What does this fold into?
Amino acid sequence: MIIDSKKYNGPCSCGRSHEMATQLAVIQPGCLKNFDQYLNDAGLTGKRAAIYDQNTYHAKNLVRPQTAQEIILNPENLHANESATSTVLSRLDPDVEVLVAVGSGTIHDITRFCAKERGIPFVACPTAASVDGFCSTVSAMTWGGFKKTLPGVAPILVLADIDVIKEAPPALALSGVGDVLGKYTALADWKIAHALTGEFLCPEIEALTRKAVEEVYTSCRQIASGSPAAFERLTCGLLLSGLAMQMMGNSRPASGAEHHISHIIEMEPETLGIHSSALHGEKVGVGTALASGVYHKLAETADITPLVKEYPPITDALIRESYGDRLFDSIAQENRTDCMAAVTPQLLAKQWPAIREIIAQIPTREELEALYREIGAKTTLEDIQVDPALLPKLLAYSPLVRNRMTLMRIRRMIDTAD
It folds into this structure.
């Protein structure tokens, strides 16, 4: 399977012109054997350095790319943060002209950040179908303890060797499934924001992302059997999601309330006392089911007019109560200009029928959780080491992670029984 991303370049029916940095994504068994040829065809010449961790360096079936320098990081407590990027940048030879990321999501975020810092291109070689960020233009980092996106560069070329990817620990593929299925709620949040405020929405990007999520939804049951075709479809879905973010210029098509739930858990505010060793996509998968449950429950109300109230402002007191002193400055800065400023109770009530139609496109919480159990994925808060008693606070506080309109944030305007 090959994605020629150049065909997505240029003028679009949405009225904008989309620019893609990634030229080609190759999703095939054994494609790393032709690493040099693919790089030559892409015009990537000069001294190369490959970034691994010790686990991915020894990945089963991996044909290591020929590079002049190899930087192998300790996987223990490895995160995309100040420490890891500083280590890589300090060890990189000064005359390196191309970086090669060989690993899963963390290695790619570290590499793309370093490529941006050095002003050089990079090549992505995923060793697991674990996240959708391989083609991203930004680095998902934990910086100063705050989960945020920082400038990075998208890969010029992606070589996803299915012979390697299908041998990765099963939890990594299940994490990838969770990350892709999160697009159901992310796309709903995007379409709801468009319906309420006219926020820009490209139908081509929406369709591309929806195709990715629906193909994974229908094929992920075959992953447990080691089906190469299922791994190809999962990897393709993850890469298409990343390409959609490139086209958009941000993560709007791929990240909504479900990611905000994941992010608040990952940020570990002292006010909640949470810590989870679950993978990012596992947390997103659980967050997707939780958000779906809330959304479908709201949609049971046909006329929401009697329940709508003025949007309550996000105060410093609320931020400190929900995120504590350590994260206060970052969360406060994120919410200085509220994306909900233009939404009135009258507007929300008027658009509620359209919002209910959008919610109907999301699989229900019960459907998602049944699928998770069938494929062996993490399903509940307990599965990701989070006390289920914290659910009300997770739902109330997680929208503050990002100043992005989601139905979970809009829910602050709706009087509900819970």
